[in-house]
Amino acid sequence: MLTGKVCVVNGAASLIGRAVAERFAREGAVVVGVDKIDHSVGERTVQADLAEESQVQELYREVVREHGRLDVIYNNMGLMARDDHSALDMSLETWRNALDANLTSIFLSCKHGIPHMLKTAPAGGSVINSASFLAAIGSATAPMGYAAAKAGVVQLSRDLGVHLARSGVRVNAVLFGPIETPAQREILERDPSVLAKRLVHWPMGRFGTLEEAAGTIAFLAGDDSGFITGAAIPLDGGITEAFTVPE
Predict the structure, then answer these.
(1) What is the rounded CA–CA span in Å between residue 181 and residue 11?
(2) Tell me: the pLDDT tens digits for 212-236?
(3) In this structure, what are the phi and psi dihedrals at residue 45, rounded to the nearest 5 degrees?
(4) What stretch of H or E contains 176?
């Protein structure tokens, strides 16, 4: 349970962000929902560009001024652009946009959020960073800017988790696989044969659900996961562990 914990959900306007915010609230947390666009997620809502350092810094100052503490940060940032594909033919602008949206935003959130956790009495908290199974495998068809950024998220989470291990602050990454959302289906169904080809390589043969995603994040946010830090937790139905899958 997250009773009384002050939880920031970044990227709250997405379906996964909303599902996590609702799960946190059901477990008794005070939820601050943050997104670049206008939204209504959370007990307290904030509109901020998470790739802009001054806005991220002010976000966390405001949360602590209002609530007196900060216990959980869920960084649900992720952007997969249509023109992000092979590194051999993508533009520098696409590359930089992928890193800003998927890695720099999480770096800034950690940089400016974690110091408040260290000042909370008692010091401590949980940071959960959204990554991807693409950070753990090689893929000939991957959006390479996105995948490289998410690999950076994994390493940043690993290093911070070890660096802060004795402080009470835990930092973990979640390697998301395909979660059932309209946007995810749209990406995979641009070509009618694409989803069928992908399913061959998904051991469970299905999308994950929003409820499963929210439950995993809530576990990492809570005290039951108190001995887990610096980890990259797969939430992918076995994709990154599979060589062959059931017929």
Answers:
(1) 15
(2) 999 999 999 999 999 999 999 999 9
(3) -115, 140
(4) strand 169-176
